[in-house]
Amino acid sequence: MAVFDTPEEAFGVLRPVCVQLTKAQTVENVAHLQAQLQAVSDSALQELQQYILFPLRFTLKTPGPKRERLIQSVVECITFVLSSTCVKEQELLQELFSELSACLYSPSSQKPAAVSEELKLAVIQGLSTLMHAAYGDIILSFYEPSVLPRLGFAVSLLLGLAEQEKSRQIKMAALKCLQVLLFQCDCQGHPRSWDELEQKQLGDLFASFLPGIATALTRIITGDFKQGHSIVMSSLKIFYETVSFIMADEQLTRVSEVQAKPAAEHRVAELMVHREASWVKNTGDKLTVLIKKITECVSVHPHWKVRLELIDLVEALLLKCSQSLVESAGPLLKALVSLLNDESPDVQAQCSKVLRRFADAKVVVGSRAFADILSENLHSLATSLPRLMNSQDDQGRVSTLSLLLGYLKLLGPKVNFVLNSVAHLQRLSKALIQVLELDVADIKIVEERRWNPEHLHASPETPAAGQWTPIQRRYFRFFTDERVFLLLRQVCQLLGFYGDLYLLVDHFMELYRESVAYRKQAAMILNELVAGAAGLGVENLHEKHIKTSPEELREIVTSILEEYTSQENWYLVTCMEAEEVGEELMVKQSGLQALTSGAHTCQATSSPAFSKPGPTICSMNSNIWQICIQLEGIGHFAHALGKDFRLLLMSALYPVLEKAGDQTLLISQAASAMMDICHACDYDSLQHLINQNSDYLVNGISLNLRHLSLHPHTPKVLEVMLQNSDASLLPLVADVVQDVLATLDQFYDKRATSFVSVLHALLAALAQWFPDAGDLREQSLGEEGSHLSQRPARLENGLDVTTAEGIEQFVLNYLKEKDVAEGNVSDFDNEEEEQSDPPEVDENDLGPHVEPPLPVQIQIATDVMERCIHLMSDKNLKIRLKVLDVLDLCVVVLQSHKNQLLPLAHRAWPSLVHRLTNDDPLAVLRAFKVLQTLGGKCGDFLRSRFCKDVLPRLTGSLVSQAPVSSRAGPVYSHTLAFKLQLAVLQGLGPLCERLDLGEGDLNKVADACLIYLSAKQPVKLQEAARSVFLHLMKVDPDSTWFLLNELYCPEEFTPPHPSLHPVQLRGSTSPQNPYTANVLLLLQQLP
């Protein structure tokens, strides 16, 4: 707080200090004066301003060399005084300005003095404070022609410091001081508003400095990026504010052709500039060169704030200098549109905001100059686009495409002027086709197969309504940057939105038909054109533009859809397997010996699309991508049309379902276009979509099955429908299933794979749709440990075994099941019994002996299982594997209808045994799974057969493989032999329990599994072996206990009485026994 508030008190204190400084100019005296000034109030300082400044100015003007530290102290003290007072006299302002500027100038060398950075910074801050201290109109009187030399000297000095100094602090201070001199600072107290006459006066004065300011700032802006983004931003701001003020159209229109005689001496008058037309033209041309350099450099500056400042530069110059800088409009617009797709969201948002302003008819479209510039630039760019796309790197392509995108946004509907030129349309389409060429050399495209058939089971809420299914990642020949592809899509969408859609679609459809080499690229472009025409993801900068009508869009989509799904474009060769159209499981297991020799040969089908011999990997990859792109296009079309797409479902849904069942991974993934159709057509889910359109789908399947050679993909449609529907579909497809079975009987030797896949989907659906077998499964689990004699009574519903009739029926049932178990019953026994016992009552007989008709699903499962019995011995391993899976599902579906299941199981048993004992290891694994299922559903039937035909082979295999696995390393767990051992060990225990094996058979199982309790075996095999003994404990715990103790005896058994002999078990008591750990674990769990 000030101590001296009145001028008198302050003068009394300051007078001796000022006198002392006048006598002796030292740093100490200056510091003493500044210390005393701290205690003086601002009002007192204002009264004593000139008195205090006198010794300080005197020190600066004293001739002779002076120490830099003294000059710095004086300048800092002057700055302190000026920061607390106002300069009210014009003469004082001019003199102080000159004196401070001279501190940085060397008269002898006529160059800026080589002084310390501290002094430079102090002088710059002093000049800035002085200009801010100028009071009222005094500041305007400073900007008169007579002061032009002083002002020009200071401007030149500050520009030199900003350009040449290494210190960022000095650079920034010099630029800020320059802003103050040019009335561009952001200080509230600095005058900013002038009337027209004052603006003209300042404009004429600043025009003299324009060449120097513009040139020096351009060098700073285009200098090294390492100088810092703040310096570049300040330089850009000064540049465009100075240029937009001096070259403002509003000012130049008021400049007379005849220059008024300035009130200044002759030499000063020669420095003044008259801003007449010729000067404007010459200056504008020179500024265009500088602006082009600036925009080219700054548009790729690494810092986003610098690029953001460039947008302000473009906006200011185009809005204020549209007439004076006509030649600069091209580079400025080019810079603006190149930032339209900047990586920074802030830059994008600001650029879009400015573009919206320019898109106003009064600003751009209504101005002939701007419209012509945009059209010329677009013409030029379209002409050179093929060359640029071919020669540039990815970053260059991003810049070029961003430029093209910006021109399209600015021109809007006027883009048709360019598209109507055949030459330019051809150049544009050639560039797009060329750059969009896909890389189809990767063998993974054709070799990756679909493993999960339920890939379309997604909830309808997965993508939000109106959103797109993500586009598959694709690889292009000429670029790798994803931004290039994104820009290409946006360009095509804008062309579809603003351009003549009929013209564009016709042009690219011609290219689509012209050559296979163009087909994929043309399809990608057509997809985006339709999406753009519907306004999907397109930002409309032209409110008056009218979108394509829904009727026109539907007509265009219909024509494209017909071309996509035509025979020659939809059914393409995508693999080289023997049955190309089949659903085959690609089993790739090294070291297998039993793979069929014909699994990788190529056979032509009767379809014309497959008649081309010897397809290459590249051609198949190309075909796969073409189908994927066309499928994605159908999804785009659905989004574009919305609910109107329902009118096209009859022609679109069936082909899409065909591809959804394709075994090629990429194609089956692309068929997620069905989810796009669901959301676009307002279906709740894929199931809802299929159910609502199942009538004509089933009709199409039925018709095409009659001409299977012409429609080999028909089974896939039914397969996908079954995988993605519910039980309500069954009544509709029941007849079609019979058609499928009849067709399978006819073409079993050619197309078995396709039909077996359908049957697998059918049985999997039946097992899912009718889960009533769950209760029976729980019941069977409760019966697993029971004795054989108890089962027939439990299986007879309503049978009372306490009466004579019940006991008689019990014995009959037992004998019957015993005959079935021993194989002494034929497939026709049931029919003969029915014929030998005719019903006593012919009509209205509702007696217990009349069986109700079988449910549809049971009849279907019965028919399918009959086919599986024949196909289980097919020579093709893949078919055998699939058939075993179908057989497993048949058993699950038929488990509650033993009268149908048991005879079929009896017929299937010989072939199943062959699969278990004399087939490829993969088939053995799958057959063992079927055996486990059979054991759980009809255990009594299997008991003697299993013990006689299968058990010896399984135990023998386990015994023979045990030494191998005990010596094997960690890699052994990845071999097929290990997987077989593990599967058998894991399945034997439940089988023994479910089949209720006798003591002799249980001993065989135990003997075979004992060796796997050794610690030398792999850990997983030890765990599986323990699970076997856990199940054996439930069947015969005493024998199991004795067997384990014979292997390792953890304790000695002492007789309870001396008269009894001690019990001696053969099991070792040594803890080094390899069986110790597992035996102890088992004994602890023994009940």
Structure explained in plain terms:
- With 1087 residues, the chain is mainly α.
- Among the domains are: 195-359; 444-588 and 599-692, no CATH class.
- It has a two-stranded antiparallel ribbon with strand order 1-2.
- A hairpin with a 4-residue loop joins strand 1 (105-106) and strand 2 (111-112).
- The protein starts with 6 loop residues before the first helix and ends with a helix.
- Mean pLDDT is 82; it is low at 457-466, 578-612, 773-798 and 827-847.
- Residues 758-1041 form the TTI1 C-terminal TPR domain.
- Belongs to the tti1 family.
- Keywords: Cytoplasm, Phosphoprotein, Ubl conjugation.
- Residues 11-343 form the TTI1 N-terminal TPR domain.
How is this fold's topology laid out?
Blueprint: H1 7-23, H2 27-37, H3 42-47, H4 49-61, H5 68-84, H6 90-102, E1 105-106, E2 111-112, H7 117-133, H8 138-142, H9 148-164, H10 168-181, H11 196-207, H12 210-221, H13 229-246, H14 249-252, H15 266-271, H16 277-298, H17 304-320, H18 329-338, H19 345-359, H20 361-365, H21 368-391, H22 394-411, H23 416-419, H24 422-435, H25 444-447, H26 482-498, H27 501-514, H28 516-533, H29 550-564, H30 567-570, H31 617-641, H32 649-660, H33 665-670, H34 673-680, H35 686-692, H36 694-705, H37 714-723, H38 730-747, H39 752-769, H40 773-783, H41 791-795, H42 804-821, H43 829-836, H44 856-871, H45 877-894, H46 898-917, H47 921-937, H48 939-967, H49 976-995, H50 999-1010, H51 1019-1035, H52 1037-1047, H53 1076-1085
Helix pairs in contact: 1-2, 1-4, 2-5, 4-5, 5-7, 6-7, 6-9, 7-10, 9-10, 9-12, 10-13, 12-13, 12-16, 13-17, 16-18, 17-18, 17-19, 18-21, 18-22, 21-22, 21-24, 22-26, 26-28, 27-28, 28-31, 29-31, 31-34, 32-37, 36-37, 36-38, 37-39, 38-44, 39-45, 42-48, 44-45, 44-46, 45-47, 46-47, 46-48, 47-48, ...
